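Hello K.,

You asked for the raw outputs rather than the summary table, so here they are, unedited. I folded two proteins back to back in the same session to keep the settings identical. This is the first:
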Amino acid sequence: MNLPDDFSKEMQQHLGNQYQAFAQAFDAPLPTSIRVNPCKTEHTPSLERVGWSSNGYYLPERIPFTFDPLFHAGQYYVQEASSMFVEQILKTVVNKPVRLLDLCAAPGGKTTLALSLLPQGSFVVANEYVPQRAQILSENLIKWGAPNTIVTNNTPADYGKLRHTFDVIIVDAPCSGEGMFRKDDEALAQWSLDNVKLCVERQKEILTSVWPSLKPGGVLIYSTCTYNTAENEEIAQYIKEEFLAEPLPPIATESEWRITREFKGDIPFYRFMPHKTKGEGFTVTAIRKPEGDYIPVKPGKTKIKTIPLPNNLKTLLKEPSKYEYTAIKDKLIALTPEGKEMMQLMEKFNILHAGIEIAVTDKGKDFVPHHSLSQSTELNLEQTPKIEVDYAGAISYLRREAMPLSEQQRGIALVTYRNTPLGWVKCVGNRANNLYPQEWRIRSERTPDEAPSIF
């Protein structure tokens, strides 16, 4: 790979005699890794483990994930291995329930990781500024199935107004993407020193905007998928000086992980370099906000109206008494107490998904179960009518095709594959109308002879 001259010069300064191995790594095959959803499956893949991740695995080769129904059902997430290191930071800094904000969250890797790790009682807000990417984030979190989350499409400045709200904030900052060179030709083509400077200014603006929403004593996790020091060590130094922040002590790591430490300065950084670690380029640090007076923002004036859960929906949840219920437009939503409080704080935000979307009104009449409920870890499978399908039937369902039924059947039923929920159908005699979300359907007409699977 022909690396940009200015990029090569800086990396030669930092790496010395390791530079040649670093440059050659850009021509090496790209590893593929996944992270299993521990709340949806107890199966353990017979695969190489990602050392710094409880649920991360390397695949020997990339499989066609589009054609794996279990991928669509949220049993695992395709995530770059290096970024799974955020787990080690969260385990170090979190020892009680927290409110966590993933500010630049799409497509959802770090958010789903946090949802799998944080103590019970925690709440996670995932935000993405770009509308199209925010929709992808919402889809991935619905499939993950956790009830303790909200997805928004807002600016960092919007979050800055939520003073002293979050215990942990993750900022995976938009960057020059040097760590993506072997994965993304566009990242390589667009790289320049001028673009690096633009990214630095944007990163400072994002951090300055969101900093007020971090509680005193709270932790900011800052990461990029780039190598240069301007977007990493120098940004951390900026946070330290501008906000009087305190770098966290070094986190314990294993020597076999072959993590590279900071290139300059005294703020602990963890660098994933392609010639040493099995993964893409990733750089991360953690900084604590100094202690001070806790002055939280007041909730909005608009109260969230609580309504009873219709009797015909109560059996669909494992523990319906754990939640409060509210109607937003045509949706009936289940919220934890923490979720209700967050919704109250975010009354003017553009909320794309919240809690468990239980049901929607069917042309203004009866409630029909929402797809979010079919993917929720809180769905009561024992009390839900089910139709089990084989692989061909699962792919047909995920294409949103009508389903023939072997016998007369009426009402709403859950389509399952290997006892895993895929979504709802409405049975109308000898066929079933497919209720899978139109925008999520598989568009390819090809069907593999065998089901691809990581298990």
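The second followed immediately with the same parameters:
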Amino acid sequence: MPMLDFHTDHGPLRINIQSLTIAGWTGRDAAAVQHHIDELAALGVPPPATVPVYYRADAELLTQAEDITVLGSDTSGEAEPLLVADDSGTLWLGLASDHTDRALEAVSIAKSKQICAKPVARELWLYEEIAPHLDALRLQARIVEDTGAVDYQSGTLQRIRPLPEILTGLPEGRLAPGSVLFCGTLPVIGAIRPARRFIMQLHDPVLERTISGEYGICCLPLVH
């Protein structure tokens, strides 16, 4: 199982990750959820039967590398708040990208969650410190295309279901020690599309701090 290293205001933290769950369709606004469903439907992805949905994925997909390698050009990132329980069960908030193969997603969302690495930023905030103002946190993403960097996602966590609700919706009702939960994403600006680089940020305007992360995407040809 992967060992991830983080910076925190309380010192360095190393966590032995045992499991990964990815929550999908977590928008708080039904119209926004439908917008994301429509985005993916345009790519051939069937709609979910109920929302939210919890997908299990291999914890080995989690990475803090500067670059990831994907197969083909039909992948893209999604900035998401991340919840992680450390080895003692203490809850932390971080930032990650649910990088997804869109071609495979049209066949099976569950399978698409297993095919791409999941980049994780290197900083965590103690959950209890930000719990009173979670909705004020701002999630943003930019992508680097051939024409340069452009805005790709932007909004506050008020647009995502309350994180305590997403937590209690887990089959176990909580995060066990060594567990990671991706909490969902925001609609993109424009169309879902690939990029050469993905840049993400989670900003706390109350405590005036920011978690940042970015990674490059190296595409392997489907055949050679």
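The chain has a mean pLDDT of 93.

Happy to rerun anything if the numbers look odd on your end.

Regards,
P.
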